[in-house]
Specification:
The protein is 14% helix and 21% strand. It is α+β, with helices and mostly antiparallel strands and 299 residues long. It has one domain. Strands 4-3-2-1-9-8-7-6-5 form a nine-stranded antiparallel beta sheet, with no helix packed on it. A hairpin with a 2-residue loop joins strand 7 and strand 8.
């Protein structure tokens, strides 16, 4: 079992994620590694909220932007921008609602948020899929594979995927609710637009801060590749049951260097947080639940 923050830090630098505790640490390092880039989304927590990652600030230096002029984005045989590649970016902590100042809760949304804070365990710590829009704020790498009628997102986080048709079909009205919803895509010029509905409303947060969503959530993503090394991502979320108005946030992912690919993510392996009884309710709290708690003893 992995013991000690110093060992966790060493493993984090090599992107080993053998437990949710170390995984959280890795995401933090990724956040601070990328935040110096001009393309990075701000990761500062709102003034009213203490950032539980603040003690890890400065753990890694900023990444220098590529020198020289930007290379043009590649295109597929049919002339569309090629979004394929391995992509990464910093964890966005507390920034999803930056454009609207604060979550515009309905009374039902406020109650659902209070429930998550007091009685809901972080679904990712239980090895459940992030879904969207939570996957859009993640600091864990992913791969995109694209052809003329389908685009696939392969996530290192929880070692899962989603497959989006681009053939003009409508939403499947009989689709079972899911963490990623029922998504369909189309091109709007050089921008890929993905429209998703049909989400689970249990055991799912929209971000790392325990904000809820209902089964009425509707997510529209806009993906574009301004140059060869960057992937722009804009997300609009509406959920009339829990929020009084839609909101939009955006970020930019960076192409991973040649030779870097995804690592296998086996969430159940060495899950010392869950198996050791260290999971608390609501968002991560480093004071109440240390980042690297002792592993349970083997029986």
């Amino acid at each position: 079992m992995l013991e000690g923050i110093s060992e966790a830090a060493e493993l984090a630098m090599s992107r080993v994620r053998s437990s949710p505790a170390i995984f959280a640490y890795v995401m933090v390092l990724a956040c601070f590694a990328i935040c110096g880039s001009a393309f990075a989304q701000s990761t500062a927590a709102p003034p009213s909220q203490e950032n539980p990652y603040s003690e890890l600030a400065g753990a890694s230096g900023p990444v220098k932007p590529a020198e020289g002029p930007a290379k043009p984005a590649p295109r597929t045989a049919d002339g569309k921008p090629d979004l394929s590649g391995f992509w990464k970016g910093p964890l966005i902590f507390g920034g999803m609602f930056k454009g609207v100042g604060a979550p515009p809760f309905t009374p039902a949304g406020e109650e659902a948020y209070k429930y998550n804070l007091a009685k809901s365990i972080n679904p990712e710590a239980l090895c459940l899929f992030a879904g969207i829009p939570r996957a859009s704020i993640s600091g864990v790498p992913f791969e995109i594979v694209q052809n003329s009628n389908r685009i696939v997102f392969l996530y290192e986080l929880m070692w899962t995927f989603r497959s989006i048709p681009l053939d003009g079909r409508a939403h499947d009205k009989d689709a079972e609710p899911s963490f990623f919803g029922n998504g369909v895509g189309k091109w709007d010029g050089d921008t890929l637009v993905i429209d998703s509905v049909g989400f689970k409303d249990k055991l799912s947060w929209i971000d790392d801060d325990a904000h809820p969503h209902s089964d009425a959530m509707h997510v529209i993503e806009r993906w574009s590749r301004p140059d060869a090394d960057h992937l722009a991502h804009e997300v609009t979320v509406e959920d009339p049951k829990f929020y009084t108005k839609p909101w939009t946030f955006s970020r930019v992912f960076t192409l991973m260097p040649p030779g870097e690919e995804l690592y296998e993510f086996a969430c159940d392996e060495n899950n010392v947080d869950r198996d050791g009884g260290h999971l608390g309710y609501g968002p991560l709290n480093l004071k109440s639940y240390p980042l690297n708690p002792p592993a349970p003893k083997n029986k």
